[in-house]
Amino acid sequence: VHLRLSDHLTPPTWTLVDCHKLDFLHRQLLEGHLFAPSFDLSGINLSDSTSHALDSTGVWTSEPPLGIDFYTDGSCRLAQAQASTGIVMLVHTAAGLKFGGFHTSRCWQAISAPRAEATAIAVALFWAIQLARAHDLRNVPFHFYFDSLFAGHAAQGLCHSDLNKDLTDVVRSLALWLEQIAHQPLRWTHVKGHSN
Predict the structure, then answer these.
(1) Each residue of 107-140: pLDDT tens digit?
(2) Angle formed by the axes of helices 113-135 and 149-156, nearest 10°
(3) Residue 61, class by beta-carbon neighbours within 10 Å (0-12 exposed, 13-18 middle, 19+ buried)?
(4) Is 60 exceeded by the pLDDT of residue 196?
(5) What are phi and psi of 39, to 5 degrees?
(6) Which residue stretches of the chain are H helix?
(7) What pTM value is reported for the model?
């Protein structure tokens, strides 16, 4: 008895992917630049501990980084329909810790506290990807500090939720992309919110 496998299996479904579109997206992400980070803290209400810490920290210019830390936070005021983010970068160098500036942004799409937190991590990851590519930062550790367990765990692939999936999928993808560029796993640390 002769059996033909094709007589007993459902034929495969083939999906065609236009790789030109993926290549275009890849180039857009790499060629698109964030605005230069801000270093002017004069209009920002800093806690005493943060102000004291930054007073003794010089500004990062071109020293080779030994490690880069990103501190991310999001904020939402539903009554005012406002949500925004803040990201601070600190750079470890042979000369000591340096202030790498900060970025702020609005929350992507719908306004909510979880989306603001996830947006902050997405902006930090995008900033890190651009730095890694521009300065060829292979084997330089990237460390991300966050206070939202939802956003931090989504970036690490430790949780799944259909809520805000459009944003958390992007955050996870950016984290995986940065790990490939950096040639090592990213470090993630939860910092209790409002703890200075």
Answers:
(1) 988 899 999 999 999 999 999 998 998 888 999 9
(2) 40
(3) exposed
(4) no
(5) -120, -5
(6) 19-31, 48-55, 113-135, 149-156, 165-182
(7) 0.83
